[in-house]
Amino acid sequence: MDLDTFKNRFLNKIQFDYELAQFTWFGVGGKAEILFIVEDLISLSDFLKNKPNELDILIIGAGSNLLIRDKGFKGIVLLTKKLNKINIDKNHIITAEAGATDAEVARFARNNLRGGLEFLLGIPGTIGGGVKMNSGAFGSEFKDVLIDVKAINHLGQFKTFTNKELGMKYRGLEISEEWIFCSARLKSFKDEKINIENKMKKIIALRKEAQPTGVKTGGSTFKNPIGNKAWKLIDRAGCRGFKIGGAMISEKHCNFIINSKKSTAKDIEDLGEHVKYKVKKVCGIELNWEIKRIGTK
Ligand SMILES: Cc1cc2nc3c(=O)[nH]c(=O)nc-3n(C[C@H](O)[C@H](O)[C@H](O)COP(=O)(O)OP(=O)(O)OC[C@H]3O[C@@H](n4cnc5c(N)ncnc54)[C@H](O)[C@@H]3O)c2cc1C
């Protein structure tokens, strides 16, 4: 389908030149050429089957690991937040749609007396973003709890990947970037509510102690290099509290960049690149971005 026919066909489902800053934790970034809010999988498949090849796709879950650049995204942004059902079957397997938040899933598991998913309470993302990043906290990661995931590609074709087929590694996957995650099946174990709640309370307390809260941030900026901690290296390189424009390295956790005033995406990215340079110079170690930087500079 050519671009004009496509735009006309989906006119009542898409929005043009849509501000994206509101969809990310950093609260920065330009506009999406086209925004499509995913409501269900049938309409998503139809949309993708008709999508002209030249249009790129960006998926946004909770936007907690995303830096969208100031000139925005040329192509289609798919927002998954309305795809958020969670259920449990007779074998106690929890299925969560991609846009369900990790915290909602943690609470759903607790309400059904299922343990093992408490760590999700500490990750401010969605299930889709969590699978994509193999996110983790407090000694558990998605890889430990994921059974399989239903996905759709840019041609609108569905496929289910087992945990093993995804090639889940530290904050990433081996499979091709083209897959959009639709829902995930998660394993858990029977537990008592009091045990689950105690673990959850501990997680919340530890978070408050170690991380800046109530601020605009993207979480850990860099992956931990093997055998090292990114925050320690950043501290050693003298970058704690360092600022560029409105972007600042958190005083509390120096692997976090904060949009402290009216920062631009450029301020945040420049600050990250400066930190990378300093860490390489002082510690001789190359940091790699964990935050996904997307869009036109
Ligand atoms: C305060 C704070 C604390 C954090 N703490 C942790 C932590 O302890 N551990 C941790 O691992 N992370 C942490 N993060 C980072 C972030 O929360 C996780 O990476 C989270 O899983 C990202 O999910 P999301 O829905 O926000 O993804 P987004 O930020 O929306 O997207 C991240 C990436 O996933 C892709 N994506 C999103 N949804 C889908 C989908 N359905 N299908 C395919 N691709 C998709 C996006 O295109 C993008 O490439 C933290 C972030 C913040 C702001």
Word description of this protein:
The structure is a single chain. By secondary structure, this protein is of the alpha+beta class. It folds into three domains: 3-79, Uridine Diphospho-n-acetylenolpyruvylglucosamine Reductase, domain 2, CATH 3.30.43; 86-209, Uridine Diphospho-n-acetylenolpyruvylglucosamine Reductase, domain 3, CATH 3.30.465; 212-294, UDP-N-acetylenolpyruvoylglucosamine reductase, C-terminal domain (Uridine Diphospho-n-acetylenolpyruvylglucosamine Reductase, domain 1), CATH 3.90.78. It has nine helices and 19 strands. The chain has a five-stranded antiparallel beta sheet. Strands 1-2-5-3 form a four-stranded mixed beta sheet, with no helix packed on it. Strand 17 and strand 18 form a beta hairpin. The longest helix is centred in the last third of the chain and has 19 residues, at 265-283. The two termini are 29 Å apart. The model has no long low-confidence stretch (mean pLDDT 96). It binds flavin-adenine dinucleotide. Flavin-adenine dinucleotide (FAD) binds next to strand 3, helix 4, strand 9, strand 13 and strand 15.
Number of helices: 9
Count of DSSP strands = 19
Form type: globular
Question: Unreliable stretches, pLDDT < 50, 5 or more residues?
Answer: none
CATH C-level of the largest domain: Alpha Beta
Q: Structural class from helices and strands?
A: alpha+beta
What percentage of the residues does DSSP assign to strands (E)?
Answer: 25-35%
- Element string (H = helix, E = strand): HEEHEEEEEHEHEEHEEHEEHEHEEEHE
Instruction: State the end-to-end CA separation.
Output: 29 Å
Number of domains: 3
Mean model confidence by pLDDT: 96
Q: Multimeric state of these chains?
A: single chain
Q: Give Rg in angstroms.
A: 20 Å
Main-sheet strand order equals 6-7-13-11-12
Q: Mind summarizing the main beta sheet?
A: 5 strands, antiparallel
What is the CATH architecture annotation of the largest domain? 2-Layer Sandwich
Which small-molecule species are bound to the chains here?
Answer: flavin-adenine dinucleotide
CATH T-level fold name of the largest domain: Uridine Diphospho-n-acetylenolpyruvylglucosamine Reductase, domain 3
Portion of residues within helices: 25-40%
